[in-house]
Write a structure and sequence with these properties.
- 59% of the residues lie in helices and 10% in strands.
- Helix 3 runs parallel beside helix 7.
- Strand 2 and strand 3 form a beta hairpin.
- It is built from 15 helices and five strands.
- It is α/β, with parallel strands linked by helices.
C-alpha cells in the first residue's frame, strides 16, 4: 500500500558484456530497514511469484519509485522481470534541476549535502567493484546494499523543499520517462556519453568542444558495439574515464593514445584485441591531426 519506495539494485558483469541482476533493494517508510531480494539465490518458481507481485507496483503511476541515477537500474529490472517502471523520482536528475547544471554527484555526496549523512566514498567504490554474483554475500555487502535504498525517501523529502514547484518536478519526471522509453539503444549511449563528458569536462577551448564531444561519442559507441559482438564487458575494453581522458587530451600520436589506454589495460589484453585498439587509434588521429596545439 506504500505510495513511495526507495529502490536500488546490484549488478555484476564480470568479463561478459551482459551481466546479472543480483539484488533488488526496496525501502518504504513504514519499516526501519531495507528489503533485499536476492535474485541469484531464488528458484525460477520463487522469482515468478516475486515478479508477479512487483510488476503491478513498478508499473503503477500512482506509486512513486525513488532511485539514484535510475537508467541502468530500470534497464536491468526490465531485462530481469520484463516490467517497465513508471513515476520515477531520480535524485541525481532532481539535484541537477535544483542546481541548474549538469553536475553528476554520487549518492554518497548527495546524502552528505542534503541530510548530513556520511558514508565513505572509498568504501562505496570498493563495494561497487565487488562480486555481487558470488554467494554467500558478506554482512558488509548486505549492509552496503541496504543503505543504498534506506535513505532515498528522506533524500527525496529534503530535495522537495528546494524545488520551486510540483510542475517543475512533473516535467523532469516526463523527461526521465522519455529518456528511458523513447530513445533507441544508440541514442541512449550517445546521451550517456554526452552527460558523462559534460559532467567531467575540464577547461577546454570552446572551438574544440564539438570535436571532443563527437569523438567521445564515437569511441563510446564503437566500444559498445565491439564489446557486445564479442561478449566482453565494455569496461574491460575502454571505460568512460579512459575515453574521456583520450578525448580531453586530444593526443596527436599513437604512443600518447596507447599510454592512456595502458593505464587501465594490459599489453596482453591489447594484443588479443589489437584490431580494435588500432581502429581506436586511427579514429582519434583522424580527428586530431589537423588541430594545432
Amino acid at each position: 500500500n506504500a505510495k513511495q519506495m526507495g529502490i536500488d539494485t546490484e549488478y555484476y558483469k564480470g568479463e561478459q558484456y551482459k551481466g546479472h541482476l543480483c539484488l533488488i533493494q526496496i525501502h518504504i517508510k513504514k519499516i526501519p530497514f531495507s528489503l533485499i531480494i536476492d535474485i541469484i539465490s531464488l528458484t525460477q518458481e520463487e522469482k515468478g511469484k516475486i515478479y508477479n507481485f512487483l510488476k503491478p507496483i513498478l508499473s503503477d503511476r500512482n506509486k512513486e519509485k525513488i532511485f539514484h541515477s535510475c537508467f541502468n537500474d530500470v534497464e536491468w529490472i526490465k531485462e530481469e522481470t520484463g516490467c517497465d517502471t513508471y513515476n520515477i523520482f531520480d535524485t541525481q536528475e532532481v539535484h541537477q534541476l535544483i542546481k541548474h547544471n549538469n553536475s553528476f554527484k554520487s549518492l554518497t555526496e548527495l546524502l552528505h549535502e542534503y541530510l548530513n549523512v556520511n558514508f565513505s566514498l572509498e568504501e562505496k567504490k570498493k563495494f561497487q567493484k565487488s562480486n555481487w554474483f558470488e554467494r554467500p554475500l558478506t554482512d558488509e555487502q548486505l549492509t552496503y546494499a541496504a543503505n543504498d535504498s534506506l535513505y532515498l525517501i528522506k533524500l527525496r523529502e529534503a530535495m522537495m523543499k528546494k524545488l520551486r514547484s510540483k510542475e517543475e518536478l512533473d516535467k523532469k519526471k516526463k523527461e526521465i520517462e522519455d529518456k528511458i522509453y523513447k530513445l533507441s539503444k544508440r541514442e541512449k549511449n550517445y546521451t550517456q556519453a554526452v552527460d558523462y563528458m559534460i559532467s567531467n569536462m575540464t577547461k577546454c577551448d570552446v572551438e574544440l568542444y564539438d570535436t571532443i564531444k563527437n569523438l567521445f561519442c564515437e569511441i563510446y559507441q564503437k566500444t559498445d558495439d565491439y564489446s557486445k559482438s564479442n561478449n566482453i564487458n565494455s569496461d574491460k575494453m575502454l571505460n568512460l574515464k579512459t575515453i574521456y581522458k583520450i578525448c580531453n587530451q586530444l593526443p596527436k600520436t599513437k604512443e600518447d593514445i596507447m599510454t592512456t589506454i595502458l593505464l587501465k589495460t594490459s599489453n596482453e589484453h591489447i594484443s588479443k584485441h589489437q584490431k580494435f585498439y588500432d581502429e581506436i587509434v586511427d579514429m582519434v588521429l583522424s580527428k586530431t591531426k589537423n588541430i594545432t596545439a
